[in-house]
From TrEMBL:
Pathway: Cofactor biosynthesis; NAD(+) biosynthesis; NAD(+) from deamido-NAD(+) (L-Gln route): step 1/1. CDD domains: GAT_Gln-NAD-synth, NAD_synthase. Its EC number is 6.3.5.1. Residues 5-275 form the CN hydrolase domain. NCBIfam families: nadE. InterPro entries: C-N_Hydrolase (IPR003010), C-N_Hydrolase_sf (IPR036526), Gln-dep_NAD_synthase (IPR014445), NAD/GMP_synthase (IPR022310), NAD_synthase (IPR003694), Rossmann-like_a/b/a_fold (IPR014729). This is Glutamine-dependent NAD(+) synthetase. The lineage of its organism: Eukaryota, Metazoa, Chordata, Craniata, Vertebrata. The keyword Cytoplasm does not apply. It comes from Glareola pratincola. Homohexamer.
Amino acid sequence: MGRAVTVATCALNQWALDFEGNLERIFRSIDIAKSRGARYRLGPELEICGYGCSDHYYESDTLLHSFQVLAKLLESPATQDIICDVGMPVLHRNVRYNCRVIFLNKKILLIRPKISLANAGNYRELRWFTPWNKARHVEEYFLPRIIQEVTGQETVPFGDAVLATKDTCLGAEICEELWAPNSPHIEMGLDGVEIFTNSSGSHHVLRKAHTRVDLVNSATAKNGGIYILANQKGCDGDRLYYDGCAMISVNGETVAQGSQFSLDDVEVLVATLDLEDVRSYRAEISSRNLAASKVNPYPRVKVNFALSCSDDVAVPTCMPIQWRHHSPEEEISLGPACWLWDYLRRSKQAGFLLPLSGGIDSSATACIVYSMCHQVCLAVKNGNADVLADARKIVNDETYVPEDPREFCKRIFTTCYMASENSSQDTCNRAKLLSEQIGSYHINLNIDAAVKAIVGIFSMVTGRMPRFSVYGGSSRENLALQNVQARIRMVLAYLFAQLTLWARGMPGGLLVLGSANVDESLRGYLTKYDCSSADINPIGGISKTDLKNFIQYCIENFQLTALRSIMSAPPTAELEPLVEGQVAQTDEVDMGMTYAELSIYGRLRKIAKAGPYSMFCKLINMWKEVCTPREVASKVKHFFRMYSINRHKMTTLTPSYHAENYSPDDNRFDLRPFLYNTTWSWQFRCIDKQVNALDFLYGFTFQVLAT
């Protein structure tokens, strides 16, 4: 009797609407799976068209091209003698569903629509798809003619069913269904399903991977079974990085782990597993067996095929392993670096340009690019032909081989220090030293002539000359003069990005990198259309605290000693005049709050869903050792006032790598007004009322204690 089943799952770097590339990567994954003896192959969610098609799902072209790709898969000899499970959108009775199409030997076995759609945070699946709400119900799906011509089938089962092979039973979940409180694997397991599959489009967030791993392992810890998870990887066209982590679990323990961050477009995990381990595990769980005796059965699609061989007693099976999680600093080093590589090669640009100020944020961005160069060289060393081909296209040299990260960095990365009369020599030296250590092509320039020209035009038209506050100017004048410097830097950044390589006699243009962190964006501590305005921003979803820890990681792991002085220097915009040659302006004084406080405000506002009053109520307990209720009230009011005044800046925020769940990204993650009543009169009055009550209570308590 067959008991050892060999299955494969994969992480594919699919790209929205890249049907040709997506098909090629699917074929490669199937070839690898078959070469390693797998009899079943699982791919990521919506892998045929790419997960991030967004409103392109409305287009009939997307459905048509998905079926054209499916036809290519069905008719290919490469897909023979292996059950293939692929993802694509399907229109059934004029309703669009997110589906798995499972086929074997030119026959479609089942089309399984998604039951629970992801519709929170970055996900908007209910905008494009409808959930299948008919539990354990199957209907006939009439195949389009291009598929009928290949399969010879007119209709196939469509709905909530499971597959019964000659040796086991398989049931499918799709991404969000694993995270739902009533996951299908619970009832399927009780009904005798032994192998659960999950095709995901799950993106990276700092410190999230362990949650996904725990969910997969817990899915079979109570109920027994084999759980196979596939996931998208890479940047498929927007702010998200899908972080792979394909895995296979048996009875609550991981037996195969894929990489979380990798430049490999195709990664396949294959495992041989003993079905008797599942059966014996379940046999002694009496509560599970009692529940199973009462479960409503799933429709079963019979498949005349086995995942095992009849004589497999001597076949070795996989044993449990310990999952290795990356530290947050490693995640920052690897995730945004892989995202940048995908963006660079797919945009067909020649590299990046970064305004490097010598501060923590721009230095962290530079370190991420340097980490990307490390990953490219390592991938080429390990024989990744795709990465080598992409690197050669980027540098326009068909014989080039990237071996040294610093040398590769010199070819594709330009840093630019844009000094003004308000810049210190210290930041200039820090930027220069860091550029030397990472190997970037570095430019030093001075913007004073441009600033004076712009201000001179204003003065000529109005007859007035604005002054900084230290020279007797008003706050309006002071802010305007700072903003002029910041915006000129943005204009120069784009000019140099377009023409630097031209001036050097090299082809192509550069992508401009932004370097505003998530906390500054939340507070609005940035000039609209300054150097925060760029093509992409790899740190826009990362907190200042995490960036500082990442800088320390780079000191230790990349030996970038220039970062030590950057770490020790107070963050500053350097937009106001120096005092005796030294910087007088600092970020936290300007903001009226610390970066640590900003992270707390951000988590409470977004993750805890706290408005001004609720945030005050939470913070008077969190900060009771360091702040009075009145001080907390003042801090909360100041934050919400500044946040609401500056919220309009989020509408033009540079597309940023999504890494933090309190991101203020206005594109689709954090949907809020950008014209607020910034007095928050009702909300602040509620806070004041509570503060007065607490003052009275504390005063009364003090009097009682004194007597």
